[in-house]
Amino acid sequence: MGDSMQCLCAYAGHTSMHRHRPRVGKEGQVLHRSKRGWVWNQFFVIEEYTGPDPVLVGRLHSDVDSGNGNIKYILSGEGAGTIFVIDDKTGNIHATKTLDREEQAQYTLTAQAVDRDTNKPLEPPSEFIVKVQDINDNPPEFLHGPYYARVPEMSNVGTSVMQVTATDADDPTYGNSARLVYSILQGQPYFSVEPQTGIIRTALPNMDREARQEYDVVIQAKDMGGHMGGLSGTTEVKITLTDVNDNPPKFPQSVYSMSVSEDKVEGEEVGRLKAKDPDMGDNGLVNYRLTDGDGLGMFVLSTDSETREAIIKLKKRVDFETKRSYTLKVEGYNVHVDPQYLAWGPYKDEATIKISVEDADEPPVFVAPSYTFEVEENAPAGTQVGRVHAKDTDIDNNPVRYMIPRYTDVEQFFSVNSEDGMITTTRPLDRETQAWHNISVSATEIGEALNCKRSSTWG
Ligand SMILES: [Ca+2]
Ligand SMILES: [Ca+2]
Ligand SMILES: [Ca+2]
Ligand SMILES: [Ca+2]
């Protein structure tokens, strides 16, 4: 066997379509043995081929084969005898199964030509590779979707929200089967996606969380460079706008009317008001302070930590007869202001509170807290002892009626004129028996249940 005879050739089957494959005559691919080894040593089989007959992968041929059947071609290696079968006479290699490149992209096999009778090698064994040629049979997939992303409201157009990435199981090194282009199917005009990178960006200025907080965006990845006929996959991206402080507090009314009765004591609640702020958390937190008004000394302001209302309370008791109305100016302001949105401020609002003082029906008051009268012993019944006097302090100035409660003068030594308060004896008194009589007189406003008792002491 001279060198010129040492040529084992192989011819490729019809389904091989690799564009880099050198053309060798009309037969197609051939494995050609030279002195230094196989000139090229790859077969190509297209994946997922589902024709009626087994695919002809290629053909081994030795130059020493004269066609009389003396040569036996032997195939060994990955898939030999199962996936790849060889006709040992003709050297034809067929694939018996459908191949999936994404499962196994290539097979390493060994070709041999031996003498059919002696089994002596006519050629040294040589390795070659069957490459499974890609077709675009895998759509892009977003393995990590659905996605959740957050971006501050009012972000500038083009602010990056997040990057989504799809994977494609097809061959990235060959053709466009795995060349992906991203597009946005849902979510315009608010958001956009960069076709090459999958980076989602804001696309509209002044997106306002207080108007709308959630966006359901759908991103598509398409292979074949996004062209017609490509396969595609989609994913959902839930985008939430996060809050910034872009709303100043606002009192719903500019003037609030409240009233307080003069009989209320210090610390009593007079009224509440609340400024609205649609922002969230600290951005919507409103504090209050009294800034002005003639009621500054009479009222105090506190804040209900739960309802965030301003509470006006009495600092001192008010008196209807002295002053009947007060004014307060209340400011509601954001504690946490974002310097970026200062121009939309000021982040405060002012309201006026008008507080009217209500007249309370106060009981009549005796002119003196106590009275001391004298009367001689043995003075006849009906002797005038003295006069007590109580006044209604209210504006109405109702008439007052007097009486002596029975328990303060059990033996009824005295009587009082119910209209003018004159106290008289009912019988002569005996100093040696009792030198002092302590009695009480009550004064009652006509038509009211209020009364006031003042003791009248007589000795
Ligand atoms: Ca594929
Ligand atoms: Ca693909
Ligand atoms: Ca705010
Ligand atoms: Ca906001």
Automatic annotation (TrEMBL):
Residues 62-142, 143-251, 252-366, 367-447 form the Cadherin domain. Its main location: membrane. GO terms for molecular function: beta-catenin binding; cadherin binding; calcium ion binding. GO terms for cellular component: adherens junction; catenin complex. CDD domains: Cadherin_repeat. Gene3D superfamilies: Cadherins. It comes from the Eukaryota. SUPFAM superfamilies: Cadherin-like. It is found in: Membrane. One of its GO terms (biological process) is calcium-dependent cell-cell adhesion via plasma membrane cell adhesion molecules. InterPro entries: Cadherin, Cadherin-like_dom, Cadherin-like_sf, Cadherin_CS. This is Cadherin 11, type 2, OB-cadherin (osteoblast). It comes from Hippocampus comes.
